[in-house]
Amino acid sequence: MPPRKIIIDTDPGQDDAAAIMLALASPELEVIGITAVAGNVPLELTARNARIVAEICGRTDIRIFAGADAPLERKLVTAEHVHGKTGLDGVTLFEPVRPLETGHAVDFIIEMLRREPENSVTLCPLGPLTNIAMALERAPDIAARIEQIVLMGGGYFEGGNITPAAEFNIYVDPEAAALVFGCGTPITMMPLDVTHKVLTTRARVERLRANGNRASVEMANMLEFYERFDEEKYGTDGGPLHDPTVIAWLLDPEMFTGRECNVEIETKSDLTLGATVVDWWRVTERTPNAFVAGGVDAERFFDLFIDRVGRL
Ligand code: BDR
Ligand code: CA
């Protein structure tokens, strides 16, 4: 089987970096481009961080584009309190060799979806959905050409992590999320209900570090920084490793459980802005529009993650 073509849309972020590493380490996937969006930190930093991560993986061949620097209709909310001032605190930062591509991320996404055969490109959004929504708005024809959208965002039984009701990626740009969930393309959603089960315990981070290669050591350093905030917040050994669940699902969907549900996005209420209203119990007649993951075998996830990053 030829590798599955993916575009990673991202706001690195240490856990975004982990997702990029897992994808670049996996022969089942061909990363045809990385598009940066403003989220955890402003666009200038997410675009630079994506390039740094690709280069840590030894991949100066990957094209990286900058996209939206602000949500569709709102002011940007960032998360330096989780990821540090640079967005990638914990890693040794450097100026990447390969420059950012000159085009806009949204144009790149549209062009790839139009150029590649229908249903051959999967989108993997790991941050606010602004770039994806802009592409769908500008070129509605691409919705039918996307193989599927596998995204990290939302939460239902777990509630939110930026407000009691909302998860960060959806909260930052709820209008974009509403557009994406309404676009008709098959969606797989990795919510907090899954990612809060994937914890970077000390033992797992040490196993990763013991691989000894550059990517594993830098990732272990990043996770040690990232853990500090989340351990305090959740009272756990290690923090949730959100974004690589998207890539893990593409590689080994059997490690997850979930169901087809209707998901709607709250865009009006001040109190619950950005909430993902998941009809898990099918109490409405609303048509399912996403496969919503709920469970994960965390040991199997880390076996895959540690093994693959060790190969970089
Ligand atoms: C999501 O928000 C970001 O801080 C992480 O990178 C992840 O994509 C988790 O809520
Ligand atoms: Ca992210």
Task: Give an overview in words.
The protein is α/β, with parallel strands linked by helices and 312 residues long. It has one domain: Ribonucleoside hydrolase-like (Inosine-uridine Nucleoside N-ribohydrolase, Chain A), CATH 3.90.245.10. The chain contains twelve helices and ten strands. It has helices spanning 14-24, 43-56, 80-83, 105-115, 130-138, 168-172, 174-181, 192-195, 202-210, 214-234, 244-251, 298-310, and strands at residues 4-10, 29-36, 64-66, 121-125, 146-152, 187-190, 256-261, 263-265, 276-278, 290-296. The strands form two sheets. Strands 3-2-1-4-5-6-10-7 form an eight-stranded mixed sheet, with helices on both faces. It has a two-stranded antiparallel sheet with strand order 8-9. Helix 1 (14-24) links the parallel strand 1 and strand 2. Helix 1 (14-24) packs parallel to helix 11. The longest helix is centred in the C-terminal third of the chain and has 21 residues, at 214-234. The model has no long low-confidence stretch (mean pLDDT 95). Beta-D-ribofuranose binds at residues 13, 15-16, 40, 79, 82, 126-127, 152, 161, 167-169, 242-243. Calcium ion binds at residues 11, 13, 16, 40, 126-127, 243.
